[in-house]
Write a structure and sequence with these properties.
Strands 1, 2, 3, 4, 5, 6, 7, 8 and 9 form a 9-stranded mixed sheet that branches. The protein is of the alpha+beta class. The chain has helices at residues 91-106, 114-137, and strands at residues 5-10, 15-21, 23-28, 31-35, 42-54, 59-64, 67-72, 75-80, 83-85.
């Protein structure tokens, strides 16, 4: 029997995904990593990007805006600020949110307030991750029927 990893992806609002996986690939503060069964214990910061979960018969891809991960004893827990599966993301809404954040970033007064500026940059990163997941991983026939929070 092939070893698996017990995966749980959770946000403050809900458990997004809980299942066994062959491997989990995601972006951390030190770059993209892949966790396989029997990986060394790990604590890491997750940055905005994708979480790719390879299962026995299918793959699940999510966009995340960041968070933390803990791995030990073939169990990985990802505590994400936000996490959405590709089929949950409204592409048009994500693109509009990114454009709005880009406009805010161009505002000269915004650069004077470092905290506000970093929040806008973080919002742009989140929307770019969402757009990437939809464009790259959503099945072509799926429409934008999902409701999504920005």
């Amino acid at each position: 029997m092939m070893k698996t990893i017990r995966l749980k992806v959770t946000t403050p609002e809900r458990v997004v995904l809980e299942k066994d996986a062959k491997q989990v690939t995601l972006t951390t503060e030190v770059g993209e990593i892949t966790i396989l069964p029997d990986h060394v214990p790990l604590l890491s910061i997750v940055v905005p990007g994708t979480i790719e979960v390879q299962e026995k018969d299918e793959n699940t891809v999510m966009a995340t805006s960041g968070g933390f991960l803990e791995f030990h004893d073939n169990e990985v827990t990802i505590l994400a600020d936000t996490a959405e599966r590709a089929d949950e993301i409204d592409l048009e809404r994500a693109q509009k949110a990114r454009e709005l954040a880009e406009d805010l970033k161009k505002n000269k007064r915004m650069h004077d307030d470092e905290e506000q500026f970093s929040m806008v940059v973080s919002r742009i990163d989140k929307q770019l991750a969402r757009i990437k997941v939809v464009k790259k991983y959503r099945p072509k026939g799926l429409g934008n029927t999902a409701i999504s929070k920005d």
